[in-house]
Design goal:
By secondary structure, the protein is α/β, with parallel strands linked by helices. It folds into two domains: about 230 residues, Rossmann fold, CATH 3.40.50; about 170 residues, Glycogen Phosphorylase B (Rossmann fold), CATH 3.40.50. The chain contains 20 helices and twelve strands. The protein has a six-stranded parallel β-sheet, with helices on both faces. The longest helix has 20 residues.
């Protein structure tokens, strides 16, 4: 019977050729003395705990979550040895830079295409399965890493790393417990794998969404997205402003997410147009985008004195800038908004990219902790409202305080270390394989947003 071919039908042969070619190109000769699966014993008789955190550099959020977990381990489990490894750099050193470049260009130049692929693979289906298969080649490199570090637990803050570890577990090539840390307020099939022992998520609605996907409730813990301790510290706002060369009396707008050039340029246009905002000072953080920083510095010469503007590149003290600000304009990355929640900082989420950014934005807006702006006109209106109405700022701060990830990293660490205690760990990974049979029942995005709204009204 004839049927219309889907995208997956065309993609499947290509993906199989790619996987076969990649495995052939990267196959290594087995090392002498490599332990067989039945001989592996990653949890040794000694009390030494070795935590391997696998991250990735498609955006900085995965790395920040990894650092937060390592920091929590250093403080609460000083005998633990924590190692952070960039999964993509380790397993695909030649493809890593090319893949990251293509990803960044894609979300900047063709965000709608990214959104289509994100929605098409949100549920477990043929296309999402193919993408997961692409993430599991070069398992030899992962096995080499496990042999060298011999971790007692592996933590994945990057979806591809979670896919690879699940594959090794199901193939019985390793028995090391595996934890996946979701770095967005969204549920997507690329995070869900049958070989995962535990999931750490940012909020209870996300936990319920994974359970609706068929993941066992005992395997999902809502700890809050892990953020570093410094984002929960209290500061004197006026003192911080003086420390960083800012006027302690002027309303302060922190502009983040400028690494792709969207927010920094848009805010600069508003200032150049003398948009009628109350006099304020803007701190525009361009991250590692030095080209953007230079361009904005040049444009400062043509800007009048209606507002004060500071343009900076990468800074290690973002937590202090957040504490000094009255409001932040940002792209809704999962870690950035979690850090802002920890600081109880009002947010305006600007032009979220279709996909996880849109879901993060909808979730935060549903909590009443952020405002959304899809155009420069909306951004101007929202900025004016926040600067002119103290009651609005206070409401956003109160809602952020209600949902901030209190001790999220420490609670995540506790959930991670529990896996090494057989009395407290969930059932064997074989039970986890049953989760895959019902993954198709994943709850829809509308249900997730409804849950967020219910939490906000509680």
């Amino acid at each position: 019977m004839w049927r219309r071919k889907s995208f997956a039908d065309y993609f499947s042969p290509l993906s199989r050729m790619y996987i076969v070619a990649s495995r052939s190109w990267s196959r290594e000769t087995p090392r002498a003395g490599r332990p067989q699966p039945e001989e592996e014993a990653y949890v040794h008789a000694s009390s030494q705990q070795r935590i391997l955190v696998l991250t990735g550099t498609l955006g900085e959020g995965h790395n920040q979550a990894a650092r937060a977990i390592a920091e929590a381990a250093a403080g609460a489990a000083p005998n633990a040895e924590t190692t952070i490894v960039d999964y993509m750099k380790w397993t695909h050193p030649k493809l890593h830079s090319v893949g990251r470049f293509c990803y960044m260009q894609g979300i900047k130049g063709l965000p709608s295409v990214y959104g289509v692929l994100y929605r098409a693979t949100r549920e477990e289906n043929r296309l999402s399965t193919l993408f997961k298969q692409l993430r599991t080649f070069r398992t030899e490199r992962m096995l080499q890493l496990l042999e060298e570090l011999r971790p007692t637990v592996v933590v994945c803050t990057f979806p591809a790393a979670a896919a690879a570890m699940s594959h090794l577990r199901l193939q019985r090539l390793t028995r090391v417990p595996t934890v996946t840390v979701l770095t967005d307020y969204a549920r997507h099939s690329y995070w869900i794998h049958p070989g995962t022992d535990r999931y750490i998520v940012g909020a209870e609605p996300i936990r319920q969404a994974l359970i609706a996907s068929g993941v066992s409730p005992s395997r999902v813990v809502a700890t809050g997205i892990p953020v570093r301790r410094q984002f929960g510290q209290r500061h004197d706002r006026a003192e911080l402003r003086r420390k960083h060369g800012l006027d302690p009396q002027l309303p302060t707008i922190l502009v983040m997410g400028g690494g792709d050039g969207l927010i920094g340029r848009s805010v600069m246009r508003l200032v150049e147009e003398q948009d009628g905002l109350p006099r304020a000072q803007f701190v525009i953080v361009c991250g590692r985008n030095e080209r953007l920083r230079r361009q904005l510095q040049e444009r400062l010469r043509s800007v009048g004195d209606a507002h004060r503007i500071v343009v900076t590149g990468y800074v290690p003290h973002v937590h202090e800038l957040m504490a000094a600000a009255d409001v932040m304009v940002t792209k809704p990355g999962g870690l950035t908004v979690s850090e802002a929640l920890a600081q109880e900082l009002p947010m305006i989420l600007f032009k979220p990219i279709p996909g996880q950014e849109q879901e993060n934005s909808a979730y935060l807006a549903g909590l009443g902790a952020a405002l959304e702006a899809s155009s420069r006109g909306e951004l101007m209106d929202q900025l004016r409202a926040v600067l002119e109405h103290a009651a609005l700022r206070d409401r956003l701060r109160r809602n952020a305080s209600r949902h901030k990830p209190v001790a999220g990293a420490s609670r995540a660490l506790q959930a991670i270390l529990e896996l090494q205690d057989p009395r407290r760990a969930p059932a064997d990974v074989a039970a986890s394989a049953l989760d895959a049979a019902v993954v198709a029942a994943v709850a829809g995005g509308a249900a997730l947003q409804a849950s967020a709204s219910a939490v906000a009204q509680a």
